[in-house]
Amino acid sequence: MGTGQSRSSNVLVVPQANQALEQLKYEVAQELGIQIPQDGYYGYMATRDTGAIGGHITRRLVQIAEQQLAGQGR
């Protein structure tokens, strides 16, 4: 583990994906009426709210993938 890299194991292969996910997170939060902390610290947010955001993001990503797969089938 001592390679000097961050401890995070979820390194994104495509850097642009991180930006897209951030955008999606804010869109979903806005749709749900949940305020994301300006400083990026989620410790004071209700677990229910962070879970709702994550769940909606997952559903949205699955929809996007299904649409792309359906488009390839033709």
From TrEMBL:
One of its GO terms (molecular function) is double-stranded DNA binding. Signal peptide: none annotated. It comes from the Bacteria. Keywords: DNA-binding. Pfam families: SASP. GO terms for biological process: DNA topological change. The keyword DNA-binding applies. SASP are bound to spore DNA. They are double-stranded DNA-binding proteins that cause DNA to change to an a-like conformation. They protect the DNA backbone from chemical and enzymatic cleavage and are thus involved in dormant spore's high resistance to UV light. PANTHER family: SMALL, ACID-SOLUBLE SPORE PROTEIN A. Belongs to the alpha/beta-type SASP family. This is Small acid-soluble spore protein.
